[in-house]
Amino acid sequence: MPSIRRPDSKSSTHAAHKPGKSPKSKSKSKKPSKGAQLTRAAAARETSSWSAKPLMVDRAAKLEKMDAKLPSLDAVFEAMPCVGGGPAKARVLSSNLDAWNARWDMLQAATESIDTQYFILEKDVYGFAFLGVLLEKQLGGVKVRAMTDAMADTFGKHGFKMPLRGKDYLQELVNHGAEVSIYHPIHDRLGTMVKQGGFATLASNHDKIIVVDGREGITGGRNIGIESFAHPKDLKGAWRDMDVSLKGEGPAKGLTISFEREFDNKDISVPVSRDRLGNWDKKDIQLIGTAKMMDVWLKAPPFTDAEKVRLRSDPALRTALANDLVEAGLAALPSFIDRRPSDQDREFLLAQAEQLVGQVETRGSNRLFKTGGTMPTRDTQAKVIDQTSAANGRINGMASTMTDMIRAAKTRVVIENPYVVLTEDMLKELEAASKRGVKIDLITNSPLSTDSAQTQAFFLEDWPMILARCPTCRIYVATGENKFHTKAAVVDGTDAFISTYNLDLLSGYVNSELGAMVKSEELAGDLLRSLENDLLDPSNGFLEYTIERDAVTGRAKLVNGQPVITFGPEDHLPAAVLEDYKGRRKLWGQTLRNNVPYLEPLRHPPLEP
Fold first, then answer.
1. How far is Cα 390 from Cα 396, in angstroms, rounded to an integer?
2. Which pTM value belongs to this model?
């Protein structure tokens, strides 16, 4: 990784003492067992609940054949507890525009079926256009099944789960034969607490899935909403995320199984019912009309640089263009819509068009995507790794995939993740890899770029300890406006993991998650270059956090049992932010962590001299 540091940062060997915090553990942790391998019994327990699935790998038997000290990445890949896999045409969807156009083309091409689940489905032009395509495809004979999560939209302000707040748009799909569900509605969580208790009460479906015709699909970190797909030039604070598209029946089958595991459990995934009084308030023109406007915008000629400047600075021009877009969308409505648009329909479409004309870089982007986009398609072997939520039996393939990959690493591990709150088990794997000489790069958020103050509170407490225990590790934090939401890893330049999985307690113990493990030196190179470009982009403002180390041994220097910080949050965060996080760090990173039983996996032993 390139060296990233503030010009006025302190030397790594001469600095004032700024000890970090290291929460105490109730018991001193033991060193990992030889090779840190899973035993046959542990592996059998992990795979037993998967045995009914014909695509499952016999992980216990595979792991038996691995080298007792250090498994190879090939052996780890073969043993992964996947729900589907095989040859795949795979493509890293790094840019927001590529990610949206890949979804758009895939949905437009569907002829048989569409299955889709998103943690967040926003009531904006992207969310309405997305539902519009689903509705048009359902009306055209394609079988549509869709699901969204309840916890991500607790009070129904942003999504579609609440009556009178957007649920009627989901009912429009159901009225025409689609199957739509809300995952773990808030009013059902009391029942979950009584029946199951523990983490199950909090469980959400964090999956992001599209599967089309049982042959291709997309997964990764992006939700459906403007923050995930807008170009940063068009939206201040647009999110930085990562997806992968997979074309191949084996991986597509895995995505379908992951979808059905949650969708088919009607105790947790509650179906949206038809309108009880009949479909008297139709939303078909609004939804399909928005989709048609989106299609026109994506496929129109791109603006020149001069046209972009003019459009961004001229509100009257944007209004005129929005009105033209409404007329184009209405003109493109399919013939099976046999009613005239109402004033309400036109008002709705104009509001969506006004959002869309603000997406200047998006105009014409489909043309560019079809000529290659920013990343090529690669021939790969891919596996889909699944994890069900704590409210649905808790099948977990994600944690073992991450730890097994790190355990097999020989040279380098690069991880970009928005929420780095490591469990002791995960930290032990990174520590063991570091002691083998494996270079480790952790790329994450700072308080200036995060959307989660709670996870940052843990991270700000932990990062010096992570560096102390992992001498070959480097930590980079974003300080720009873009929120980093990528959940990806590259190991030894050959194996790439793109997922929905955060390095925090919710992903590790509570939510449903999904990931794609792709074996391909070419695709791993694409992903690695994308992550390195993130670090080099000045708009992201990446800084490196450092501690003082012994010049000969590389070991962390400790004062009173704490690492000596040479560059950290206190060196770049505004005073108001530091003061705000002072209380958060004490509450979350210390008091709650050390006293709440559910947070015990996040406790770490004191550093040893």
1. 10
2. 0.87
CA atoms within 13 A on the CB side of 316: 0
Q: State how far the Cα of 155 lies from the Cα of 162, in Å rounded to an integer.
A: 8
**333-342 tens-digit pLDDT:** 999 998 999 9
Q: What are phi and psi of 45, to 5 degrees?
A: -60, -40
> Is pLDDT at 420 greater than 60 in this prediction?
yes
Query: Distance (Å, rounded) from C-alpha 514 to C-alpha 219?
Result: 8
Per-chain mean pLDDT for the chain: 87
Our CA dihedral for 500, 501, 505, 508, rounded to 10 degrees, sits at 120
| Vertex 302: Cα angle to 296 and 304 (nearest 5) | 145
Comparing CA positions, the residue from 327, 270, 313, 259 lying closest to residue 83 is: 259
3-state helix, strand, coil in the chain (%, to 5): 40, 20, 40
Residue type, 57: V
Q: What is the pLDDT of residues 317-333, one digit of tens each?
A: 999 999 999 999 999 99
Q: Strand 473-478 and strand 439-445: pairing?
A: parallel
Residue 400: what residue type? S
- Cβ-contact 407, 484 below 8 angstroms: no
Contact 182, 272 (CB under 8 A): yes
Distance CA 212, CA 113 (A): 6
Give the three-class secondary structure for 402.
Answer: helix
Distance from C-alpha of 512 to C-alpha of 387, rounded to nearest angstrom: 5
| Beta bridge partner(s), residue 572 | none
Residues 100 and 137: their CA atoms lie apart, in Å, by 18
Q: Which two tokens stand for residue 447?
A: 């308080």
Dist CA 448 CA 193 (whole Å): 35
Rounded CA gap, 45 and 396, in Å?
A: 11
Tell me the two tokens of residue 227.
Answer: 């923050």
Q: Tell me: the pLDDT tens digits for 483-527? A: 999 999 999 999 999 999 999 989 988 999 999 999 999 999 999
Running DSSP on this structure, what letter comes out for residue 411? S
Under 8 Å CB-to-CB from 487, ≥6 apart: which residues?
220, 221, 242, 416, 417, 418, 498, 499, 500, 501, 502, 515
- The residue whose two tokens read 């450092």 is 546
Phi-psi region of 326 (alpha: psi -120 to 50; beta: other; left: phi over 0): alpha
Question: Which tokens in the block code for residue 509?
Answer: 């113990």
Question: How many Cβ atoms sit within 10 Å of the Cβ of residue 575?
Answer: 8
pLDDT, tens digit, 9 for 90 and up, residues 270-298: 999 988 776 678 999 999 999 999 999 99
**Dihedral of CA 97/99/100/105: which sign?**
positive
Secondary structure class of 109 (helix, strand, coil): coil
Distance CA 561, CA 558 (A): 5
Return d(Cα 268, Cα 117) in angstroms, integer.
14
